[in-house]
Amino acid sequence: MTRILWVNPGEPPANLNEEFRQLLTREKEASTEVDVVSTGRGPRDLEYRYYEALVIPDTLHRLRQAEKEGYEGAVIGCFYDPGVEEARELTNLIVIGPGEASMRLASVLGHTFSVIVGREKWIPQMRENVARHGMEGRLASFRAVDLPVCEMRTDEPETARRIERAARAAVEEDGAEVIILGCTMEYGFYQDLQQRLHVPVVDPVLAAFKTAEWLVGLKNRYGWSHSKVRAYEPPPEGQIRAWDLARQYGID
Amino acid sequence: MTRILWVNPGEPPANLNEEFRQLLTREKEASTEVDVVSTGRGPRDLEYRYYEALVIPDTLHRLRQAEKEGYEGAVIGCFYDPGVEEARELTNLIVIGPGEASMRLASVLGHTFSVIVGREKWIPQMRENVARHGMEGRLASFRAVDLPVCEMRTDEPETARRIERAARAAVEEDGAEVIILGCTMEYGFYQDLQQRLHVPVVDPVLAAFKTAEWLVGLKNRYGWSHSKVRAYEPPPEGQIRAWDLARQYGID
Amino acid sequence: MTRILWVNPGEPPANLNEEFRQLLTREKEASTEVDVVSTGRGPRDLEYRYYEALVIPDTLHRLRQAEKEGYEGAVIGCFYDPGVEEARELTNLIVIGPGEASMRLASVLGHTFSVIVGREKWIPQMRENVARHGMEGRLASFRAVDLPVCEMRTDEPETARRIERAARAAVEEDGAEVIILGCTMEYGFYQDLQQRLHVPVVDPVLAAFKTAEWLVGLKNRYGWSHSKVRAYEPPPEGQIRAWDLARQYGID
Amino acid sequence: MTRILWVNPGEPPANLNEEFRQLLTREKEASTEVDVVSTGRGPRDLEYRYYEALVIPDTLHRLRQAEKEGYEGAVIGCFYDPGVEEARELTNLIVIGPGEASMRLASVLGHTFSVIVGREKWIPQMRENVARHGMEGRLASFRAVDLPVCEMRTDEPETARRIERAARAAVEEDGAEVIILGCTMEYGFYQDLQQRLHVPVVDPVLAAFKTAEWLVGLKNRYGWSHSKVRAYEPPPEGQIRAWDLARQYGID
Amino acid sequence: MTRILWVNPGEPPANLNEEFRQLLTREKEASTEVDVVSTGRGPRDLEYRYYEALVIPDTLHRLRQAEKEGYEGAVIGCFYDPGVEEARELTNLIVIGPGEASMRLASVLGHTFSVIVGREKWIPQMRENVARHGMEGRLASFRAVDLPVCEMRTDEPETARRIERAARAAVEEDGAEVIILGCTMEYGFYQDLQQRLHVPVVDPVLAAFKTAEWLVGLKNRYGWSHSKVRAYEPPPEGQIRAWDLARQYGID
Amino acid sequence: MTRILWVNPGEPPANLNEEFRQLLTREKEASTEVDVVSTGRGPRDLEYRYYEALVIPDTLHRLRQAEKEGYEGAVIGCFYDPGVEEARELTNLIVIGPGEASMRLASVLGHTFSVIVGREKWIPQMRENVARHGMEGRLASFRAVDLPVCEMRTDEPETARRIERAARAAVEEDGAEVIILGCTMEYGFYQDLQQRLHVPVVDPVLAAFKTAEWLVGLKNRYGWSHSKVRAYEPPPEGQIRAWDLARQYGID
Question: How big is chain A by its Cα radius of gyration, in Å?
């Protein structure tokens, strides 16, 4: 049994958790159990660094609780991968985000990829993530479709058209061999696009979930989990208690 | 008049704020006004990513308030520079951290620098910061003195001896031309060390404060502030209000 | 059903194929079918570039045949990953090698890894592979145990001792957070080592096989396969026939 | 008291020194004393490497004299930063050039910058400087306005128009968050441009001068000067005398 | 006497060997002896990685024989440089390919170069070669003329026109200071192009041949040959015999 | 006929020019004519950046004169390669220095090289040159023998012993496959060292001279000279005359 928790940080639009739960339930292995939650307060999306900062503590506390509840892996559902490094440090869960998962997958599928983002604003932070993962040499381009997160699903055919236009330009002009949809709110568009462009189109929601599921399997079988030496060395539980952090931050 | 706020994120040891206030008051320009605050709850130091995540929202809200109170610049007092990018996005303050300030300064003073850290745990995250600032080519080494933040000032002569031993090895074996003290809790050790080693030793507290003071001066005179295009484009105030974020996160 | 072919290129020691078949059969998912073959002629191991060059054509032809036989994925069983790029171009199989698979996995498990190789000779070519995959920033070190491939299993306790000594030095002196065993002939040593060192130790045989199995699953479900645009654009079948390559190279 | 010497290397157009003296006197701190000189012979501008080579020795000798006269810092007034490294080695002055100062400042103000140069000719050498300072990752683009140095001030409104056109393209097409004016002869254009483009526009003359002033302040207060170990280790005075270099090069 | 063997791997178009023999005989030093051979079976050109893989073993065996016949240097005649690393390992010959030779030469001739290739397909593999040789910083661009290898000489005036158009765009739009013709089938076009574009145009055939000739001269005079330590350490002859590789691969 | 001028910048020790003339005359091709000069004033060696700055103008003027005298190529005889870029810009000569020539050659001979320098002081500037030429990935190490330039030939057996000790450590501990002697005053030591270490040892004097000779041959035959577009675009002769530079700098 592999138990995965997908966290949509903040307070996403109504039904999104349920929609994702249905989607991931369709896509999971038989032996996987998946739940989708959000952290219960905060912004509706994470278009800004400020919003990410707001939701990370709640996300970490939710994952800490998830670990106690027996979950073995978690996805933090935002392409910026907010809190992923922190969660690997704090908990013993396997943790992954859509950004890292999509880039890792894309770089096996081809030599170069382009990321289709909503707005130019996103690019500098994502470029830092590309660099952190050693993928600069693989990045063909970022292309923006001029839609904020909250309008991605307002007019789906229009969004699909814009994504296709940007992705086609990436393949034809920028040398992209693979397309990554650079926002979880672009979920589901990959299938049609892939058929029209004849290159792999990575859906970040599926990439992250299937990566988490696979990594948990490896951990259960071979003991391969995030190293707790150096980068992910956890804070001492005694210190957390001595400093009374749970009470201070309103955690049960 | 230049108004700078130094924020010690979390709940640092008693007297630290006052000690820093006295230190910075001695070091400021006549026309500068400096205050030192902490965010009032949280961990005593930021040795772990989890602790950083906890204190960043409070830090951002404190800086937002500082902006309203008329401050023009801020230092976030931790060598990891937690929240610096977020604060540049959220506010119109000049914002800097000791890590970035020290590395920028050191790279003018010599071709290479070494950073003297407390524990090996700190190195991976700091190495990412070195890379983010394009300083890999300048980094001679990290050297750890095997002291957590909270023991840095327990036995100051012993700490001084360990720092000197590590710094001397960095100069003689690793090719360092400049030494950076890689923790705000190493403040004050630079002076003696500099005389003994005959290379510049950068104090991160002074480096950050004097950088903030200088940048605010440039902003006031020439209008050079953090660009609000792309990376630091701020979240719309209307959205923050519409999502009722202030109430949700207990901000006045 | 997922059908994977593991190819041990060249003519490996007797029983190796059978040993690997049993190993992979134990490790596979229920729905996976795995076979292990070698290419039937050539060197016993691939310690030299010349040996790699010799076995690549036979490997490619074996994979071309495998595709016709209905296999969906393949592992080329050597840590140098010989022929992987070529096979992705020539066939529609999912293809992976132990080197790439191990490095990709290790870089999710920690910030840095060290690779335990047999001889110094291997390092330059493997370093090129590290660079090709954008992993220079993740590489803590290579450490050699002074054993050629063909002596890796001669005295297994001695090999284990040497690997442990090298791996421990990598963790303690080089800053490695994860250890990669850098030769398929080091299979099986990971388990004991992992318990003694308290860091993840990646077995390259398992890493490659489980990666192939997972990628084939993604391909079958989402159509994500190696992009056939640019890098992996295949040679035209008509040209292969017109030039009579099959007859010239003795392929049926 | 902070004493800074601005050196315009070579024999710049009449009045330039006086114009810069007035400009810098307006911009200096009260406690700063600034003088502007040129080296008294040589080319009128440094558009070519040959011209730089010609003026560097005179510049170094002028700075050596400046050190004896009690100056504490110097700016070498050309965006190529000719002689800066040499002067840091030869003297104990704080030395900076407009190129380095502008890039350092711009990279605090935003994630990316573009440099507006006069001619394409300048780009390769400046790109080397960008790389030397670890700023490749920050460089959005170079854009040339097709004006040699000596025509920059011939028709100022036309120059302003060209710079604006190039800078606007850099922001809108190349992703620049900050603009650097890449020639000291572009001084003064920043103010108007900044208001029109809504991004910071760095004036290289002001950036260099204010950096020098600040660094001298730090040196006087904390002893932070260019490290004299390795890169900036100075030639032995005894050797300079023994080889009779002063007489040979006509220095008093 | 310097004896060089030019190998056209595979089975190139009739007369090509003879044409190259005449060309190189015209271009050689008086004391050089040059022969041109192909490997006698295989594809007509090496547009795909599969084709390269097919011809490398025959090429290596031909070079091994060449070494016995007294040749001192060899060129492997394809811009991808297939088998060059392997041949340096296996034999004591000086070995070079047109890609490496052209890039090394171009980077002395100017700061940047562009490579004019036949098809987009070639770019990812060539980009890897650029990176392997540390030339990313020198690469202005790749430009493709939309011709496969086998059509390069079909309509020579048309090919010349396409190359000129691509090369001119590289110089005028991409900042190239030097042009490299990125396919041996582009031999001879350099002369006219150079006169029209006023930048150096490197012919890969001449670049490779003259490099080989020069390196053999250095080896004969100073003993400078490919280091046999680490990267090019050769396989033990005893092992090659013990494994009966010659018989298995049909070598005499 | 190939005419090369070797310039020893400054005023080197008596007999050095004559010694080099004899050496190069022994090593030249029959059709080459070589002369050795120094610039007639200045420091005896170029251990410091200041000394380099002093000799570059005289060197450039000597090369300008050489061009008029019919020379076709020049070597600037110092491993720092002072003035090489400037000379390529100012003149139409082929120009090379020992540093660039040695590194280019070494990187064909093996994957990695170490440079044996006199003093630690030299390393930062040489490391910048390594980076400028894209060779960071090839650099195994710098090793210093603690001898200034002027003592390199004082006790030649002792110098040889020190070089051997450093070079052996580079091969055995740092992974060097090739050794570069990083100072022209180390000329001649390569031969004995090469036999003792069994790796190629590059003599910088021979490397530079033979590179110049070869490049001039290519220029004469194929017109391949330094591109005069962008980086090496020369200053206009009219401007040089109008500004009366020759008179100002005492050139005939």
Answer: 18
Sheet holding E73-76, edge to edge: E32-38, E2-8, E73-76, E94-96
CB-defined contacts D:F, below 8 A: 99
Which chains are adjacent to chain D, needing at least 3 Cβ pairs under 8 Å?
A, B, E, F
Touching, D vs B (3+ Cβ pairs under 8 A): yes
Q: Which domains does chain F have, with CATH numbers?
A: 2-98+206-248 (3.40.50.12500), 99-204 (3.40.50.12500)
The Cβ of residue A242 has, within 10 Å, a number of other Cβ atoms equal to 10
Q: CA angle, corner A126, sides to A121 and A129, nearest 5?
A: 155
d(CA F201, CA F113): 9
Q: Note whether F120 contacts B177, CB cutoff 8 Å.
A: no
DSSP code at position C30? T
Enter the tokens of residue F248: 């100002």
CA–CA distance, B12 with B78 (Å, rounded to integer): 11
- CA dihedral sign of residues C84, C85, C87, C93: positive
Q: Which residues contact C100 (CB under 8 A, 6 or more apart)?
A: A108, C81, C84, C129, C133
Interface contact F175-C120, CB threshold 8 A: yes
Tell me the pLDDT band of B14, cut-offs 50, 70 and 90.
confident
Average pLDDT on D169-192 reads 98
The pLDDT of residue B251 is 87
Chain-chain contact of C124 with F112 (C-beta, under 8 angstroms) = yes
Residues constituting chain E: 252
CB E121 within 8 A of CB E150: no
User: DSSP for F61-79?
Assistant: HHHHHHHHHT--EEEE-ST
Q: ipTM for the complex?
A: 0.97
Strand partners, A143: A116
pLDDT in tens, F80-128: 999 999 999 999 999 999 999 999 999 999 999 999 999 999 999 999 9
Q: Which of A43, A53, A85 sits opposite B49 (nearest CB)?
A: A85
Residue C217: CB partners within 8 Å, gap ≥ 6?
A: A210, C2
The token pair that represents B138 in the structure block: 């300048």
- Minimal Cα distance from A171: which residue of E? E120
| Whether B118 contacts B152, CB under 8 Å | yes
8 Å CB contact of E177 and D124: yes
Q: Do chains D and C touch (3 or more CB pairs under 8 A)?
A: no
CA dist., res. A27 & res. B49, Å (int): 33
Contact across the interface for F131 and B112, Cβ inside 8 Å:
no
